[in-house]
Amino acid sequence: MTSLVDSRPKRRSQPRPLAGFGSLLRFMMRRDRVRAPAWIASVVGLVAASAASIVGLYETPSQLQEYADIAQADAAFKAFAGPGYGLDDPTLGAVMMNEVLVYSFVGVALMCIFLTVRHTRAEEETDRAELVRAAGVGRLSTLAAACVWVAIINVVVAIGLTLSLLAFGLTATGTLAYSAATCAVGMVFIGVAAVAAQVASSARAATASAGTTLAACFLLRAVGDLGTSWLTWLSPLGWAQSIRAFADERWWVLVLLGLAAAGSVAGAFVLSMRRDLGAGFFKQRPGPAVGSPRLASPLALAARLQRTSLISWTIGLAIIGAFFGIVTDEAEKMLESEAIAEFFAQAGAGTPTELFLATVVLMTALTASGYTVSTVLRLRTEELAVRAEPVLATPVSRRRWLLSYLTVSAVGTIVVMVVTGLAVGLGSAAQLGTTADILPVLGATLAMVPALLVLAAVTVALVGWSPRWAQLAWAGVAISAVVGLLAETLKLPDWLRNVSPFEHVPPLPAADFEWLPLVLLVLVAIGLTFVGLGAMNRRDIG
Amino acid sequence: MPTAISMRNVVKTFGPTRALDGLDLEVATGEVHGYLGPNGSGKSVTIRTLLGLLRHDSGEARLLGGDPWRDAVALHRRLAYVPGDVSLWPNLSGGEIIDYFGRLRGDLDRPKRDELIERFELDPRKKAGTYSKGNRQKVALVLALASNAELLLLDEPTAGLDPLMETVFQDCISAVAAEGRTVMLSSHILAEVEKLCDRVTIIRNGRAVQSGSLDDMRTTTRTAITVSTDRPVDGLEVLEGVHSVRTEGAALRFEVDSHALGRVLNHLTAFGIRSLVSQPPTLEELFLREYGDDLAASEAAGTS
Ligand SMILES: Nc1ncnc2c1ncn2[C@@H]1O[C@H](COP(=O)(O)OP(=O)(O)O)[C@@H](O)[C@H]1O
Ligand SMILES: [Mg+2]
Hints:
The complex is a heterodimer of chains A (542) and B (304). With 542 residues, chain A is mainly alpha-helical. Chain A has two domains: 18-282, no CATH class; 295-542, no CATH class. In chain A, 71% of the residues lie in helices and 0% in strands. The longest helix of chain A is centred in the last third of the chain and has 35 residues, at 398-432. The relative contact order of chain B is 0.14. The longest helix of chain B is centred in the C-terminal third of the chain and has 21 residues, at 283-303. Chain B is of the alpha/beta class and 304 residues long. In chain B, a hairpin with a 2-residue loop joins strand 11 and strand 12. Chain B has a six-stranded mixed beta sheet, sandwiched between helices. A four-stranded antiparallel beta sheet of chain B has the order 11-12-10-13, with helices on one face. In chain B, strands 2-1-4 form a three-stranded antiparallel beta sheet, covered by helices on one side. Chain B folds into two domains: 3-216, Rossmann fold; 218-303, YebC, transcriptional regulation domain (Alpha-Beta Plaits). Chain A binds chain B through residues 1-4, 125, 127, 202, 278-279, 284, 286-293, 295-298, 301, 304-305, 385-387, 389-397, 538-542, and chain B through 48, 51, 53-55, 72-74, 76-77, 79, 81, 83, 85-93, 95-106, 123-127, 129-130, 133, 140, 226, 251, 275, 277, 279. The structure holds adenosine-5'-diphosphate (ADP) and magnesium ion (MG). Residues 14, 17, 19, 37, 39-45 of chain B line the site of adenosine-5'-diphosphate.
């Protein structure tokens, strides 16, 4: 009974800034009891698997030398792997670094970004955060506990990396330099993500801007390693490479990384003192008080909600496409290596430049499938977030609702592929000094659209038939990627290759154009869409 | 058309769970019908079945003269729905969301919308991501109440509203009722339903256990009283309709049948009332008292 409760106002003092740190840390560990081991196992496992394959491939000094010769002559290699420290006198360690170093950086950085945002900004978007702060938790405790927890995971990964490289018999000094560099990159991106979590207007935006920072760091050092070496020094990934693991280590670079990590984390703390819980540092601008008359259909809403995503994918893929276009002239050189020739030969028969462009088109299409599928999967997000239900309680049929997202996915896919095609074509035109490739490349990217539509339709069918398994749509993307990039290497059987819709697209411009397979792909997409629509009309919502 | 909603022996299962277990429900056109039941009793499932979002396994359901599953789109033009847990697009403003739904329904009444936004003290410019649960609830209420729908399906619409806003809500529902429109109001708060509803259906474990006018129900309702008086009270136990009297410190607690309330208060006045708190029984208590035996029996039957 409320009347019996003593209701005199209690004077409550502001809790100390770090009050509750320990219990928050334990809570985070509990929440991550599956996720943290999964991240650690994947990062360490992937590196160990690559290491195992490299150890198997390069057994003699002459094999190592052969690798070094190719890698040093090749711009694309440099762009993806770094300047090739230690390849003048190649050791197994130096070759290993060339193969796994940058990927380790990217993997660990992504892990730190996702986990840091998860425990800071994403947590604030739950109702739990207000309760936590009301329960006498200090202003800085959540951020501090999140940074410490992710740093612990990061260190565990570094220990795992050290142990696995040592197990392959690599030298201790080089191994330590490698794992220290990787760990330091992780720490820097904990800081980057912590700052993004304070500044951005939502958790999604925080992850996106930290991810964009990572992509920018990657590109800076890629362009830097191609020749403009001062650009490399603008990128923490570039610094970490410059530790030169397995090649006359320069340990002092670690200080630079340490300062960057400490500086960004400190910056995040300063920012967090100056903002409200749940709000970005930049005040979210209020929206309009009345809705635009155009926002009057599920299609208009789907387009509006996917606008930012479409713009980001388009820009991202255009940058990647232009980059590949610019290195087209390296194609001839690359094909001198047997392994690479085999890889490109998957694309078909043609001149080295045509083979290279066909492979680039396939890779951009495989990347774009991420946009295609994730946009259709928004149907499931909307349903799970109980936002589909009130819409379907208005005179909007299930078919109209479902087709709205499929339409946005299909139209957006065409936009992404057209822009990417133009970017590849223009990049190669700028490098080769001829515009002859622009239209063929654009045609090649457009020819990928039917295959992408099949993936979209598979997703629709899954959302309709077995919503619980809708995320299986990503298996379609994964299978297509493995078939597209590794079919020869893994000697995959034909039936498995034929599962990927991209296998049925003629590898333009390295092949002749054919209508029939494209028309068939479109028909398959339409058929699967009808399957999804039919099932959608028969099942429960929610 | 005499009935807005009629359900007969409707069964809806989710795997082993029988969410609706032979439900009978009758809502007359033009009435405010209370739909009461504890959490998990099947209120939301009932409403979502009526909206054609869920497909029932067996039994017959009619809504505004149509089939809620087959005629869903046509029926949705004539009804408005407030979900129990309102979830909105975080990057759209409240005003944009209200207008989006108004345009989907096709009956956006701007003056009415503006008036409701003002009465519910909602800031339509704020992004929905910054709204509290109560404010999200207000968005859903504004867009339902701004419509001219002939039937309002409201699923625990006041969860998360503060008492002041609850009063505004009650005024709005009274106005809707005065226009002759039909309201189905699901709730687990007896007091709210008592204020607004003509008739009530009580559901438990997916089955209607009682249905009728509130006056009928009141006789079965007991109120819990906590009172402290200047002088010790005597003679209370022997009054008709008084139950379970006990002292707790300086206070006296007991339960009283609603029809005996006036007489008991008169009796207490004589001893000098210093403070008095009355609390209607929670629905759960009512159930335990009224249906406990039935339940125990049916559960025993179900397990054997
Ligand atoms: N989509 C679903 N899947 C499985 N079980 C469900 C689903 N929706 C509701 N239920 C179950 O049906 C029963 C009734 O739920 P509900 O109608 O939400 O209750 P309430 O009266 O609180 O609104 C509960 O036992 C609930 O767990
Ligand atoms: Mg409910």
